[in-house]
């Protein structure tokens, strides 16, 4: 179970690193960012249907999520049974610095916060467009949807709390996963701690860069529909056939 938890956690780490990098395309402008979103949906077309690879990746991530959460619950229940009523049965001497120790002690609740955030806020807001604070969201206009959402301080705050939980989770999770997989040795401990901290901090900074820029007005507002679609359709080329708006804009 520990290995399953470690491997699924590392899969999620690679995903969030790629996701954070992809979000930074937002600073290239509306057409460029939405073009990037189309690129992800058009992977392996025509071998796969439009959006097919993206849905396969989503299903794979969901399987990893179930494996990770299931393993965590199993290990927690097993440890609770082994400890019984004595909360202090296992107490190791010495203490790590405060933040690292805090991250370890909040792994479980941080995971719960992340799970609720993903299922209740993030997916309904930006994938299903069921939760649309700030304006009328439009399928295919990722730049506009993010702009509407992060104009609101309370949406920004929800994401900041969720990302803090993510980064604490990553901070301890990288260490724990590598230890489980046998990569931690006495001489490598300081280096792995440093890598875990850098990854966690970099993820927080990268993910919060765009919401913060939107909140404080450092990026351009979305274009009007009449100005947007001619530029967008020209940029995405053959993928334009998947957008009815492109046909209307060019005929």
What keywords describe this structure?
elongated; 251 residues; mainly alpha; single chain
Ends apart, CA distance between termini: 58 Å
Largest sheet: none
Oligomer: single chain
Order of helices and strands: HHHHHHHHHH
Proportion of helical residues: over 70%
Shape: elongated
| Radius of gyration, CA atoms, in whole angstroms | 21 Å
H/I helix tally: 10
Average residue pLDDT: 86
Poorly predicted parts = 88-96
Number of strands: 0
Provide the β-strand percentage band. under 5%
Helix/strand class: mainly alpha
3D architecture notes:
The chain is 71% helix and 0% strand. The chain has 251 residues and is mainly α. The protein is elongated, with a radius of gyration of 21 Å. 23% of the residues are buried.
Short characterization:
71% of the residues lie in helices and 0% in strands. The protein is built from ten helices and no strands.
What's the arrangement of secondary structure elements?
Elements: H1 2-23, H2 30-41, H3 52-83, H4 98-105, H5 107-127, H6 142-150, H7 153-180, H8 189-215, H9 225-236, H10 244-250
Helix pairs in contact: 1-3, 1-7, 1-8, 2-9, 4-7, 5-7, 7-8, 9-10
């Amino acid at each position: 179970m520990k290995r399953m938890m470690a491997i699924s956690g590392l899969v999620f780490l690679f995903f969030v690193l790629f996701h954070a990098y992809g979000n930074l395309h937002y600073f290239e402008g509306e057409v460029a960012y939405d073009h990037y979103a189309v690129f992800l949906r058009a992977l392996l077309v025509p071998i796969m249907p439009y959006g097919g690879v993206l849905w396969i990746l989503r299903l794979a991530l969901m399987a990893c999520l179930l494996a990770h959460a299931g393993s965590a619950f199993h290990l927690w229940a097993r440890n609770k049974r082994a400890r019984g009523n004595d909360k202090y049965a296992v107490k190791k001497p010495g203490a790590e610095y405060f933040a690292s120790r805090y991250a370890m002690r909040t792994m479980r609740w941080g995971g719960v916060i992340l799970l609720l955030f993903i299922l209740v806020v993030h997916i309904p807001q930006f994938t299903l467009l069921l939760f649309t604070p700030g304006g009328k969201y439009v399928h295919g206009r990722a730049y506009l949807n993010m702009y509407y959402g992060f104009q609101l301080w309370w949406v920004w705050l929800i994401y900041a709390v969720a990302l803090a939980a993510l980064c604490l989770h990553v901070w301890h999770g990288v260490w724990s996963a590598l230890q489980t997989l046998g990569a931690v040795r006495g001489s490598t401990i300081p280096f792995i701690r440093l890598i875990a901290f850098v990854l966690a901090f970099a993820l927080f900074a990268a993910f919060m860069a765009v919401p913060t820029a939107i909140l404080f007005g450092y990026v351009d507002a979305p274009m009007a529909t009449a100005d947007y679609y001619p530029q967008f359709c020209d940029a995405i080329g053959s993928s334009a056939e998947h957008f009815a708006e492109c046909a209307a804009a060019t005929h």
